TrEMBL record, chain A:
<feature type="transmembrane region" description="Helical">
    <location>
        <begin position="76"/>
        <end position="95"/>
    </location>
</feature>
<protein>
    <submittedName>
        <fullName>DUF58 domain-containing protein</fullName>
    </submittedName>
</protein>
<keyword id="KW-0472">Membrane</keyword>
<keyword id="KW-1133">Transmembrane helix</keyword>
<dbReference type="InterPro" id="IPR002881">
    <property type="entry name" value="DUF58"/>
</dbReference>
<feature type="domain" description="DUF58">
    <location>
        <begin position="234"/>
        <end position="273"/>
    </location>
</feature>
<dbReference type="Pfam" id="PF01882">
    <property type="entry name" value="DUF58"/>
</dbReference>
<feature type="transmembrane region" description="Helical">
    <location>
        <begin position="53"/>
        <end position="70"/>
    </location>
</feature>
<keyword id="KW-0812">Transmembrane</keyword>
């Protein structure tokens, strides 16, 4: 998905990082089982010495050579104990990951530019206590955590977003340097957890197309400005009262926006692809997104018309959600 | 950080006895600065201060040893640099580096001392160091320090089998590949190839171990144990030396008589000399050793590590004919022979019927005149022999042997002085004899026609009541030589002596099995398991195989997952219900299961409820205590599930119906 790829590129700017990302691609990933948990098995765990480990090996070699040369049996014994400790620690690192269950899920949808949230749940199925588990994803890594035997822990992962669409968490790396920091054992968990990224709403949008709903129970009225109900924002024009300025919008860097208030009445609007104009379709989607937000804030009944997709008029949170999802995945989902 | 400082500080403690005081002082000044900087961070030296500190450390070491290589200087430099690195620590990475170098530092301590005590001390420090590394890596659990120490101990215990396999089979070098110059051997005491008044006294007072002997058969009486070392031919008036007479490098002519042979194994402590001590007179010498015509057995190089060898000696012997070169060397007289010495010998010669008789007269002279045996003889002037014989008459074995040999040469009997050890104490706990440096001795050998070179110990001629027991002798305690009888040990001293013997038995075993474990031992072990034919390659093969097995076993031990006792109880509970046909479905939680039980068997509901409710509380609630678990086990035990227990026949009928309906 475009979103996650750009994130990854942004993180791994160095060549070494890029190389490791490429290598990472060759590694066997932990598949997600039918129940939504990825279980780490032996063949999914990779172990490599860390820089500390390599240094340790070097010092150990010097110690070995010295002890051999001086025929110092106790020195040799110490060397062998250290070497064996390193070997055992390699296996402990491996066992520290073995059998772990990882569940990933996406959080609520966010607007492009905001942080998307994912939830990761690590669980030990009653095998052994775990220590020093570091979860890393394209979004960055989280402080190491420990798990008691049979315990589970939930972590939140934040991921910066740039483009609308379905943001897939992507491969999650679970790594440990337990116990001595000489070896790094890691597993790559393939996760299908997604979070929806809505288009970034523009600061303002032109007022949508109002459908006057005939002679039904709706009160008729002009669309003139009043002071009763908030009907939506519009850009500041010289002469507007500063009391009407939307300071919150200013704080959110949406520019000088005036809150429009209208008389008490209900109306239905169509938010229409054809009615908004923008440089490209993304700009149009951003405008539509703003309209959806405004309309739902104004508690207007609204519908959405996109090429090849029409969402009938409705009101409420569900409608807002549905429209935002449609905007987010417009032209992307093959489904 | 504090932990790292403390570890290094503790590790430097034993160095105090081996390194120069100025180095130790500087080290602990650095530690003090480090500790102070922990509390007042402003004290932490910056880079510009560290540079002069480093230079000062380097200069300090060079000033103490005039070099930076070798054991002492190298150890001092390493310790100083580690302490400086400690001051420079900025982050976790530095501490990690320090922890890794610390392992090397610990190994270097064994160059100074290889006692079991130091090993135990180092083991504790090693665990501390590993705990530090664990703490640097995984600071996630509760109570991190305890957990880290636990992890470190577990790691070491798990690593032990593998380490032992490596230790047993890892191929050793038979000779060093390199050497940083000659290490300082001044601390080593032992015989030297010259004798002057006072030299043996020094040795006797050192109280150190000289060597240990295992006799193949029954051991000869301690009085008969004369261990030969250097043979001295030349007397310059004050000193006996082996020079300038050329060594009699050829092998000795075979003994004309060699009876009463004993075989024995010697483990010789390093003495920085070449002599391999042998019972008088050696018959078979170890491979690689050489011997000289005067029966000195020499190792191929100086003994700087423990040397072990097997020898056979004849206690009764006849060396046969006298070699003319030897006869000349054994007739050399010191330049300072006085008239009264000559008169004394001439007097003996007049009366003596044979050379043997003359020797006896000489011994009788020491016995009958007022000669005293003492470790604290009065100082002697430019002509020690004359002064000793006629004026002071108080001396130690070196005085007696020297004076006697000079007198014999004056009488025309070929004589030489032999240095070595006399006696040896049996250690009942180890089945071996201990020979201390305090057993060092000097005696005389004379050549008599028909008998060959014969050992004459003039010191033994002194009347027992004239052996002086000065404070020096008493200070020798348990190691006093057999010349000072030991019957008067009181109970406490006796106990101390036994303890000392027991301690020595332990040390001997340690030396034998750990410190001197060598290629020869490895090959012996290999033939023991029937792979002797494979030689050195066999070692490598066996090492790899045994290491693989040890590692596999260790991993299996780690892999063993201990089940949650709660789960075990619950499984047992489910198993009992399964026996009456109520099998828990895999996706069924305890509550759902309970509902199904109650629905199918209303009578069982109230029975299983106490168990299940407690189980649910422990499983999903917080803070299960051991008591809770015990109570759960009790409730499981009390649970009496039978097929159709409640309603008599009805119940049974229901159970049968259930069983049927399942088919």
């Amino acid at each position: 998905m475009p979103g996650s790829v750009t994130q990854r590129e942004r993180k791994d700017l160095t060549t070494a990082g890029r190389l490791s990302a490429v290598l990472q691609g060759f590694l066997r990933q932990v598949p997600t089982d039918r129940d939504g948990a990825a279980r780490i098995r032996g063949r999914h765990i990779y172990v490599m010495p860390t820089r500390t480990g390599l240094l340790f090996a070097l010092v150990l070699f010097v110690t070995l050579a010295g002890s051999l040369n001086y025929q110092n049996n106790l020195g040799l014994l110490l060397t062998f104990v250290l070497g064996s400790v390193a070997l055992v620690s390699l296996h402990l690192a491996w066992f520290n990951l073995l059998g772990l269950e990882v569940r990933a899920s996406g959080g609520d949808g966010v607007f492009a530019g905001d942080d998307a949230y994912f939830t990761l749940t690590l669980r030990d199925p009653g095998h052994r206590p775990r220590a020093d588990l570091v979860v890393g994803a394209a979004a960055g890594s989280v402080h190491p955590i420990a798990l008691a035997r049979g315990a589970q822990e939930t972590l939140g992962l934040a991921m910066a977003t740039a483009e609308r669409g379905r943001l897939v968490l992507g491969p999650v790396t679970l790594e440990t340097r337990f116990p001595l920091g000489l070896f790094r054992a890691w597993s790559v968990v393939r996760s299908h957890a997604t979070t929806l990224v809505y288009p970034r709403p523009t600061a303002t949008a032109p007022p949508p197309l109002v459908i006057q709903v005939g002679a039904q129970a709706q009160a008729q009225g002009d669309r003139g400005e009043g002071a009763d109900d908030f009907i939506g924002p519009r850009l500041y024009r010289p002469g507007d009262s500063p009391r009407r300025l939307d300071w919150k919008a200013l704080a959110r860097e949406r520019g000088l926006v005036i809150k429009q208030f209208g008389g008490a009445r209900t109306e239905e609007v169509w938010l229409d692809w054809e009615q908004v104009t923008g440089r490209d379709s993304e700009a149009r989607l951003s405008l539509l997104c703003r309209q959806v937000i405004d309309a739902s804030e104004a508690r207007t009944r609204f519908g959405l018309r996109l090429p090849g997709c029409i969402i009938p008029v409705a009101a409420g949170e569900t409608q807002r959600q549905r429209c935002l999802e449609t905007l987010a995945t417009f032209d992307q989902d093959p489904r | 950080m504090l932990a790292a400082t403390l570890l290094l500080g503790l590790a430097c403690l034993p160095l105090g006895q081996w390194l120069a005081p100025q180095v130790i002082l500087y080290l602990y000044a650095l530690f003090a600065l480090r500790l102070a900087a922990l509390y007042w961070p402003a004290l932490a030296p910056n880079r510009w201060l560290l540079l002069p500190l480093t230079l000062a450390g380097l200069i300090n070491v060079v000033a103490a040893y005039a070099t930076v290589t070798g054991r002492e200087a190298g150890g001092a430099l390493l310790a100083t640099m580690l302490a400086l690195k400690l001051l420079e620590v900025r982050g976790k990475r530095d501490v990690r580096l320090l922890a890794i170098l610390f392992g090397f530092f610990l190994a270097s301590l064994f160059l100074f001392d290889q006692s079991p005590l130091l090993l135990a001390y180092v083991s504790i420090l090693l665990i501390g160091n590993l705990a530090l590394m664990v703490d640097l890596t995984a600071r996630t659990g509760p109570r991190p320090l305890t957990a880290a120490a636990g992890h470190a101990t577990r790691l070491v215990l798990l690593a032990m089998p593998l380490a032992i396999v490596f230790f047993l089979f890892f191929p050793r070098l038979e000779a060093p590949l390199w050497s940083f110059g000659r290490d300082d051997q001044t601390g080593i005491t032992g015989l030297s190839d010259e004798l002057e008044p006072g030299s043996i006294t020094q040795l006797v007072l050192s109280g150190e171990l000289a060597f240990r002997v295992w006799f193949d058969g029954p051991a000869p009486a301690p009085e008969r144990l004369y261990w030969r070392g250097p043979v001295l031919w030349h007397m310059d008036g004050r000193r006996w030396t082996g020079e300038p007479i050329p060594r009699f490098d050829a092998a000795p002519q075979p003994l004309a008589l060699a009876e009463d042979q004993v075989s024995y194994r010697v483990v010789l402590e390093p003495n920085n000399q070449r002599w391999l001590l042998a019972l008088d007179k050696p018959v078979l010498i170890p491979d690689g050793a050489t011997w000289t015509a005067d029966f000195q057995v020499l190792a191929s190089r100086r003994v700087t590590t423990t040397e072990r060898y097997q020898m056979t000696s004849a206690m009764q012997y006849d060396t046969g004919q006298l070699d003319p070169a030897m006869a000349a060397a054994a007739a050399q007289l010191p330049p300072n022979v006085t008239a009264r010495m000559r008169a004394l010998v001439d007097h003996w010669r007049r009366d003596a019927t044979s050379d043997r008789d003359l020797v006896e007269r000489g011994l009788a002279y020491f016995r009958d005149e007022e000669f005293h045996y003492t470790l604290e003889p009065p100082p002697l002037g430019p002509n020690p022999t004359d002064e000793f014989l006629f004026e002071t008459r108080r001396g130690f074995c070196e005085h007696y042997a020297s004076a006697f040999a000079v007198l014999m040469r004056l009488a025309g009997i070929p004589a030489r002085v032999v240095l070595g050890y006399h006696g040896g104490e049996q250690n009942p706990m180890g089945g071996y004899h201990i020979i201390w440096q305090s057993d060092a001795h000097a005696w005389t050998e004379v050549w008599l026609a028909g008998e060959g070179w014969q050992r004459i110990d003039p010191t033994a001629a002194i009347a027992a009541h004239r052996i002086e027991r000065g404070s020096l002798v008493d200070g020798l305690g348990a190691t006093r030589p057999i010349r000072f009888a030991q019957q008067d040990l009181d109970r406490l001293a006796w106990l101390a002596h036994r303890m000392r013997l027991a301690g020595d038995a332990l040390r001997a075993g340690w030396q034998d099995w750990v410190l001197d474990y060598s290629t020869a031992r490895q090959l012996a072990l290999l033939s023991l398991i029937g792979l002797g034919f494979m030689s050195h390659y066999g070692l490598a093969v066996v090492m790899v195989l045994a290491a693989a097995v040890a590692l596999a076993l260790t991993v299996a031990l780690v892999a063993r997952t201990r089940r949650d006792p709660l789960e075990v109880l619950y499984d047992r509970f489910c198993g009992r219900l399964a026996r009456i046909g109520l099998t828990r479905q895999p996706n069924e939680g305890p509550v759902a299961f309970y509902e199904r039980i109650s629905a199918r068997r209303p009578d069982l509901g109230p029975l299983v409820e106490p168990f299940l409710s407690l189980y649910i509380r422990i499983r999903y609630g917080h803070g299960a205590t051991i008591d809770d678990r015990r109570e759960l086990a009790r409730r499981l035990k009390r649970l009496n599930i039978r097929k159709g227990r409640s309603g008599g026949r009805d119940g049974r009928g229901a159970a049968v119906k259930q069983a049927r309906s399942r088919h």
